[in-house]
Here is the input.
Amino acid sequence: MTETPQRNRPENPDKDATGGDSRSSSLTKRGGGAPATRGRTTIADGVVEKIAGMAARDVVGVHAMGSGLSRTFGAVRDRVPGGSKSVTRGVKAEVGESQTALDLEIVVDYGVSIADVARDVRENVVAAVERMTGLEVIEVNIAVSDVKLPDEDDDEDQSEPRVQ
Here is the structure.
């Protein structure tokens, strides 16, 4: 931690440089601006990816996130002791100082309108990311990589043990 040099600091802390009472001066004079403007906040790509992933999964008609290959690797990783489901699967974010762009890869349920699901995902993701981060979402690109048919088995849901 570095210390800033104290310039023109009066001997008596209750008196300012002109001899007046400094207790009556506003905090903005002493601190150099409103507290909200002091410092900088940075948000990592992974934070935005988690928010977007959770918001996309909340939409009715979204069966899963990610391509078949990433879901397969994710299912294997989820079975490893100590592993957890990745909420960022199928989400890629590029975060700047005040804006972000997102790419999502989703699997939709059979029978739903893909256009409606994509619109709902965009709306939900934009609202969640902008509300939680304050970043402007400039685009949400959605790639539908698969459709989950009613009679298909889920690779992720197969939790039957190999040894009994």
The chain is about 30% helix and 20% strand.
